[in-house]
Amino acid sequence: MQKKCFLKNSIMKTIISILILPLLLSSCSQNKIIYVADALANGQGVSPKKCLQIKENLEDEWTLFYDSIEGFDYQEGNSYTIEVNINKIKDQPKDSSSLKYKLVKIIKQEKRKVSQEEKTLQGEWQVTQVIGIDSLNMSPTLIIDINDNKISGNAGCNRYSAFFKTEGKQITIAKSLATKRYCQNMNIEDAFFECLKNTSYYKYDANVLSFYSKADEKLLACVKM
Predict the structure, then answer these.
(1) What are the extents of the domains in the chain?
(2) Judging by beta carbons within 10 Å of its beta carbon (0-12, 13-18, 19+), is residue 70 exposed, middle or buried?
(3) What is the rounded distance in angstroms from the CA atom of residue 18 to the CA atom of residue 2?
């Protein structure tokens, strides 16, 4: 009787081990297909950082990815479909990710197509008009790089940079990062940053690039430098 019980227990343990082993293996390591956007986005951690934008399904919204992917040489301006291996890390340092991502293969890579409308944005611009400012004794500048989706320049006092997204003539400009220099008159700079934040769409006409709000107010006017 004891022998039969022992045999039965042994068989049950074997069956349980067979069932559990794949679960343990899958929980420690798995491969996934993920989509990577063609532009980085600003993330907030201990300090601001640029993050990949990823999703697992085409219909999903983009989410910020704060980790790194070993072996993945990301180039902004390109979208990717990649396969990654995800491993759980034992005894990881405090405040760090418990997962390690490693590139298995690049399934698809596509360079972002730039429309003719977007091409009008490219270049270095000098601001000639800011809403609410009568006279520009210091003219802000915009250096627009459509390949990196980046705007930078001088706001009148401080250097700044920001990322933007376009869809047709619609444009969304992210919060600008700027140096912390103080000037005697900050009115122009403050108004300029407010205009960038509230910009909804742009027009290019007669060599003048203008930015407008959702309420169709003309916020900024610029000419090529």
Answers:
(1) 29-111, 116-224
(2) exposed
(3) 24
In the numeric block, which tokens belong to residue 189? 């700079």
> Can you give the pTM of this predicted structure?
0.58
How many Å from the N-terminal Cα to the C-terminal Cα in the chain? 95
Sequential pLDDT tens for the chain (225 residues): 544 544 455 555 555 455 544 544 445 789 999 999 988 887 876 677 889 999 999 888 889 999 999 999 998 888 999 999 999 887 666 666 789 999 999 999 998 787 888 889 999 999 999 999 998 988 999 999 988 789 999 999 999 999 888 888 999 998 899 999 988 889 999 999 999 999 999 999 999 999 999 999 999 999 999
| Residue 193 token pair | 């940053």
Do the beta carbons of residue 185 and residue 98 sit within 8 Å? no
Residues 85, 104 contacting (CB under 8 angstroms): yes
**Residue 139 DSSP SS3:** coil
Q: Is 99 exposed, middle or buried (0-12, 13-18, 19+ CB in 10 A)?
A: exposed
Q: How far apart are CA 209 and CA 117, in angstroms?
A: 11
Cα–Cα distance for residue pair 185/183, rounded to 1 Å: 6
Q: Which CATH class is domain 116-224?
A: mainly beta
